[in-house]
Prior knowledge:
Elements: H1 13-16, H2 23-26, H3 40-44, E1 56-57, E2 59-62, H4 68-71, E3 80-82, E4 92-110, E5 113-121, E6 129-134, E7 137-150, E8 158-163, H5 167-183, E9 191-202, E10 205-217, H6 220-234, E11 239-240
Parallel strand pairs: 1-11, 2-8
Antiparallel strand pairs: 2-3, 4-5, 4-7, 4-9, 6-7, 7-8, 9-10
Amino acid sequence: MKSKKKKTKKKSKATTRKRSKPMQEETQLVRKPEAPIVAQDANEWGAPELSASDVVIPKLFLMQKMSKGVDEKLAKEGEYLDSLSKKSLGASFVAVPFFLQKTQHVHFWEGRERKWAEERPAPAGAKNFEKETVDGVDVERTLVFNFHVLLPGSSLPHIVSFKGTSIRAGKELATQMYFANGSAHLPPWEYSVEVSSSPVDGEKGKYFVSNVKVSKKSTDHEKAEASKWLGLVRSGQVRSQGYEEVFSE
């Protein structure tokens, strides 16, 4: 019997042809546009498309006896006032913290008259309070712990600040977020916290300080929102209200 010869196919030259240029030269980097963040209902109402850079993060201020919000009867002393809605959250609220930014409130005085106030990034090793005189102007610097938080039912972050006699509570919250959670391999937003005020009798009368305690475990939705906003905040795409814009706290 004659043995059948197997037919062999010639290899196509196209399959063995090498690229003349490396892949990197053929790939173009395209910058992704900012994702719109307008709520669905707002789109239905004809709102323009807004990106993260169009958003200003409001602040939550603890009202004292001489605060403008108390004078305008927007809130009582010891309550937290929303700088955007001008509504009081009461003497306590629950929030999910996801980012800490340390700044300094800087006041410039000439005699007893305050000439200017602004907020600056805090340098490394900044103290709780510093004072010096520069060219005849008294300069006071107060360390501030600004926490970006998410409130229940709100898709917009807020900032709650701790300074002065409340700075200890801010340091306790920072310890919980970055050391206690971190040592357990958990993100800063793993737990929500309750922020509340309490009265203190001082030399110049009664004033209020902030306190913080862990509340409960954050929901999956809260964790996803916190992670999303962390990226936007750290990229610099959103900004908070400037200290001079809400100086009359």
